[in-house]
Specification:
The protein has 362 residues and is mainly alpha-helical. The chain contains 12 helices and 13 strands. Helices cover 55% and strands 8% of the residues. It has a 3-stranded antiparallel sheet with strand order 3-2-13, with helices on one face. Helix 9 runs antiparallel to helix 10. The longest helix has 21 residues.
Length: 362
């Protein structure tokens, strides 16, 4: 696997974001592109938040102005179109058909972090102001004692009935979104933001042990690995605390074991990328020993998900996953974002250049 920090693999992924149509004219980003149907899924506010973070990351890595302009368009879509002023929040998907919207606690955290990445890159206050408004919605509209409801129906903010699926229940995975509060604490110095992060941290540490495997079907366990990695990512600000470094080390081990067991049946590229990013950052932030040979194998696995195709809607993007040896027909923005960052971080680590900065984690 021949890769370089300035290699064409990153340029191809960046071109897919800029030219494939996955970011639509309004600035919003579709959940994925279906290569078998030749169509985008609906625009997702969460995915638009992720895309904003990646595009800022690519601008920082390359200096190319086109990335920052695309990130601005994503951010302005969130602040000017997706923001629901009457409900004082951002819905789950940008509905154009009059359907009754929902809002997700998790998605709002991702949106906040995308807007904060733009705020740091541009200094444009609308990004910070909307980030704070979304963070206020997280605290106000989803509060459930020591927990946070995962979903509410708009406009009345009624909690959706909880189901067995992990995304329909509170859980340790919500710590990834609580990073939004910690980042706002760093930006503003307001202690209430740090206190909210600590609340979710305490709940996540107390409940995380029972999250895996949580299912019996391999495909569903793989989905839970994706969510469990969100929990591990959420630990990074406190990686120096013994209870957090221990959870990181054990969580990386558990994830790798289950990934190896399930991958021959079903493998998600984002899970492999999340695991590699965690492995590299845990070594930097928490002195968790780095398994360099395993990291190299994970990087090679991620690279195999990048698609080569003449169709610009496909070529350069990363596939969501594979069943057996067959790639699934989803060219996925989040898979692409996580994979690009994981590969670049691995190359930086190999060169002794990796930053110990969890804030840049997409």
């Amino acid at each position: 696997m021949l890769l370089s920090l300035s290699g064409s693999w990153m340029d191809q992924a960046g071109a897919w974001f800029l030219q494939s149509g996955i970011q639509e004219a309004c600035g919003g980003v579709a959940r994925y592109y279906r290569s078998d149907l030749g169509a985008n899924a609906r625009i997702s506010t969460e995915i638009t938040g992720y895309a904003a973070s990646l595009l800022v990351y690519l601008h920082r890595a390359t200096g190319q102005a086109a990335y920052l302009e695309a990130a601005r368009r994503a951010g302005r879509f969130l602040t000017r179109q997706a923001w629901d002023g009457a409900a004082a929040t951002v819905p789950f998907e940008y509905a154009v058909d009059g359907s009754r919207p929902q809002a997700f606690f998790f998605d709002l955290g991702i949106i906040v972090r995308g807007l904060l990445a733009l705020w740091r890159a541009t200094g444009e206050r609308e990004f910070l102001e909307t980030a704070e408004a979304c963070a206020a919605s997280m605290a106000r509209d989803f509060a459930a004692g020591e927990e946070f409801h995962p979903i509410v129906v708009l406009p009345e903010k009624r909690p959706v009935a909880r189901e067995a699926r992990w995304s329909r229940r509170p859980g340790c995975y919500q710590l990834k979104s609580a990073l939004a509060w910690y980042e706002l604490f760093e930006e503003t110095g307001r202690e209430e933001y740090r206190a909210r992060y600590e609340q979710v941290l305490e709940f996540a540490l107390r409940t995380q042990a029972s999250f895996l495997p949580g299912e019996t079907q391999p495909e569903r366990i793989m989905d839970r690995l994706h969510a469990y990695c969100y929990f591990l990512e959420g630990l990074l600000p406190c990686a120096g605390r013994p209870e957090c470094s221990g959870a990181l080390a054990e969580g990386i081990r558990r994830t790798a074991v289950l990934l190896d067991e399930i991958a021959p049946v079903f493998e998600r590229s984002d899970v492999v990328a999340q695991l590699l990013r965690l492995r590299l950052l845990a070594a930097k932030l928490a002195a968790v020993p780095l398994d360099a040979a395993r990291a190299t194998r994970e990087a090679a696995s991620i690279r195999d998900f990048q698609l080569e195709h003449q169709d610009p809607r496909v070529g350069g993007g990363f596939g969501f996953g594979r069943q057996g040896v067959e790639l699934l027909p989803f060219v996925n923005p989040v898979s692409t974002a996580f994979s690009v960052q994981a590969l670049r971080m691995w190359l930086q680590s190999e060169a002794g250049q990796l930053e110990a900065a969890w804030q840049t984690l997409i």
